[in-house]
Design brief:
It is a single chain. The chain is of the alpha+beta class. It has a single domain, classed as Mitochondrial biogenesis AIM24 (Double-stranded beta-helix, 4-Layer Sandwich). It is built from five helices and 19 strands. The protein has a six-stranded antiparallel beta sheet with strand order 5-6-3-10-13-8. A six-stranded antiparallel beta sheet has the order 11-12-9-16-19-14. Strand 1 and strand 2 form a beta hairpin. It starts with 10 loop residues before the first strand and ends with a helix.
């Protein structure tokens, strides 16, 4: 796909350390698009408009918008996105926050080849003119065993886009032939030049007792990749495993000190 022209040139500032948000500075008439529910706060002259489709400015007919919106549903996102436009005569600001602890990553899509592929819930916001679609991994192994990596989002354009990730983020530049093996849930994003596949862990003990799943995601260079230390699925599993079970006991309360611990902390 050709790089989309005329994406709005927005300025930004990423705020915070472990629970970040992004501040977008809009000149008069500039617009930023974002996923529904990501807004944190905005100045008075910033106007909201619900849009139907993938956020790009190239769609001209209703059926095109229906098709692109339907593709977004496959990634677990809403049919609609929200556009925030500065309707005033001076610079205004709008802030967006990630839905769970982690980092916000700024991607200059034009400098990354016009297209970045990311995990299906990673997109946060972008300059208007950026297209947010889906990317099917074509290899049958990825389709059958890729888990979180089978259906991914693609961000296309020539401006700035922002994605969020859990925990700490590591950016790696892979040279031609370099291969990185990654838990599929830890993959945040990669450039379109990266070759993504699935590899069996191997070994009976690794398979049944390793605790890391049966498959790795393999990322082969050249290109850039972004890896997160805390996938949301892993965080959710820990929260669920620590939640009160039937009878009101938490995990670990069946120990010898469990009852004593309740007395000490007042339960």
């Amino acid at each position: 796909m050709d790089i989309l022209p005329n994406t709005h040139e927005i300025d930004y500032r990423i705020i915070g350390e472990e629970m970040q948000c992004v501040e977008i500075e809009l000149d008069p008439a500039e617009t930023v698009i974002a996923e529904a529910g990501s807004l944190m706060m905005m100045d008075q002259d910033v106007k909201m408009q619900t849009i139907f489709g993938d956020g790009s400015k190239g769609e001209q007919n209703f059926m095109g918008k229906v098709f692109s919106a339907g593709k977004r549903v496959l990634t677990g996102e809403s049919l609609f996105m929200t556009a925030y436009t500065n309707s005033g005569n001076s610079k205004k600001h709008v802030h967006f926050a990630a839905p769970y602890p982690g980092k916000v990553i700024a991607l200059d899509v034009a400098q990354l080849g016009g297209k970045v592929i990311c995990q299906k819930d990673a997109f946060l916001c972008a300059a208007q003119g950026t297209a947010i679609g889906i990317e099917f991994q074509k290899r049958i192994g990825v389709g059958l065993f890729g888990g979180e990596g089978f259906i991914m989002q693609k961000v296309e354009g020539d401006g700035l886009a922002f994605v969020h990730a859990g925990g700490t983020v590591i950016e790696r530049e892979l040279q031609a032939g370099d291969v990185l093996k990654v838990d599929t849930g830890c993959i945040v994003a990669f450039t379109q030049s990266i070759d993504y596949d699935i590899e069996f862990v191997g070994g009976i003990k690794n398979t049944f007792f390793g605790g890391e799943g049966l498959f790795f995601g393999t990322l082969k260079g050249p290109g850039k990749v972004w890896i997160q230390s805390l996938p949301f699925s892993r965080l959710a599993d820990k929260i669920i495993s620590s939640a009160p079970k039937m009878g009101g006991k938490r995990k670990g309360e069946g120990s010898i000190l469990g009852g004593l611990g309740d007395i000490i902390d007042g339960r």
